[in-house]
Write a structure and sequence with these properties.
30% of the residues lie in helices and 25% in strands. With 357 residues, the protein is an alpha+beta fold. The longest helix is centred in the N-terminal third of the chain and has 19 residues.
Length: 357
């Protein structure tokens, strides 16, 4: 019997450590969707037991798993460490907000866990959007021009607007704003005036922000399964985002046209070459510009974890995608085949074959 510890921060009791209200909002919807999809896939594998932690405030845990129900921050941490030590493999999903992802990955590593995702070194870099962008830019990987701001810094009047303001440690479009000009006084003023509930649930607003030029084009995500000595690039998914200046994630769809898919994959591969060695499932957010030669394409962010695109990709994959994660962790390169049927998925994991955006 192989025991897999599948940890998702929002559903797994991580919010107890923030002293926050019960889980709610977009982070819960996406977290629950990823947890359900992965739990179903791992549980379907012969001889695999899935272990999770589960926030008691969410009611009954999902079926087909062994759930360690947690009722406090101390209880959650103890259950996390015990599961990481007792299980044969550990997959950590958490937002980068306030260092949540890095803290849990480090906890798992310290407990001697066999991680199915990136190690603390990779997570440390990728969790800081500004430092990641600087590293990519220095290596010639195209990213939006940007700069670092503290919470009370004034917006520069000589910057190229419209621009995007986002926390350096953000996730799930939390605290992301489109700025038409420099009329606002500071990132703190912008966030305080219109902070969404999920971000505001934490005790403090971000202290470091990235201001970057807005890049028009097709927003897409590219997932890559990494292993020692190689990686597998999965089909790119189109991201459907709100048009209210907040870039709220409405879901995704695939496949992209072949040329766009090729350009998205090339961006992800270029980024991987200059980032620290990685393992497991890595997500890249990109924008594909109008120039057919790809000269306006940009890498927007690197997500050192499973992303919501998994719920769509698993449906397009003709084999069990979770099995590929386990095999990749052993250094194997499992063959993955994806069908060409149109798939649309929402942040809560609903799948359809027709657009719903």
């Amino acid at each position: 019997m192989v025991r897999v510890f599948l940890y998702e921060f929002i559903t797994g009791g991580g919010l107890w450590s923030w002293g926050a209200a019960p889980p709610a909002g977009s982070l819960l919807r996406e977290g629950a969707a990823m947890l359900a999809a992965l739990a179903e896939d791992f549980a379907a594998l012969p001889g695999v037991e899935v272990v999770i932690t589960w926030d008691v405030r969410l009611g009954e845990p999902p079926p087909q798993v062994t759930a360690l129900v947690v009722r406090s921050a101390r209880h959650e941490r103890a259950a996390f460490v015990r599961a990481a030590q007792d299980c044969d493999a550990t997959l950590v999903i958490a937002p980068e907000i306030a260092g949540a992802l890095l803290e849990r990955v480090q906890m798992a590593a310290d407990a001697g866990a066999r991680l199915l995702g990136p190690d603390p070194g990779f997570v440390t870099l990728a969790s800081d959007k500004h430092q990641t962008a600087k590293r990519l830019h220095a290596a010639g990987v195209p990213v939006p021009p940007g700069m670092l701001l503290a919470g009370d810094d004034a917006f520069p009047v000589d910057f190229s607007y419209p621009a995007v303001l986002k926390p350096c440690d953000g996730a799930g479009s939390q605290g992301v704003f489109l700025l038409k000009d420099a009329s606002a006084r500071s990132p703190r003023e912008v966030a305080t005036a219109d902070a969404d509930m999920d971000l505001a649930s934490h005790d403090a607003l971000p202290t470091k922000w990235r201001l970057e030029s807005f890049c028009p084009g097709v927003p897409a995500s590219v997932a890559v399964v990494c292993r020692s000595g190689g990686h597998i690039v999965l089909p790119a998914c189109r991201q459907h985002l709100s048009e209210d200046g907040r870039f709220r994630y409405l879901g995704g769809s695939l496949p992209l046209p072949q040329e766009l898919n090729h350009r998205a994959a090339s961006l992800a591969q270029s980024a991987l070459q200059v980032l620290p060695p990685a393992r497991g499932y890595i997500g890249f957010d990109v924008v594909l510009g109008s120039a057919q030669d790809g000269s306006q394409d940009r890498v927007i962010e690197v997500n050192p974890r499973i992303t919501t695109s998994y719920v769509g990709l698993r449906r397009a994959c003709t084999s069990n995608l979770a099995a590929a994660l386990l095999k990749s962790a052993k250094g194997e390169s499992p063959p993955l085949i994806f069908n060409s049927n149109g798939i649309y998925y929402t942040p809560n994991g609903t799948i359809s074959e027709t657009p719903h955006f």
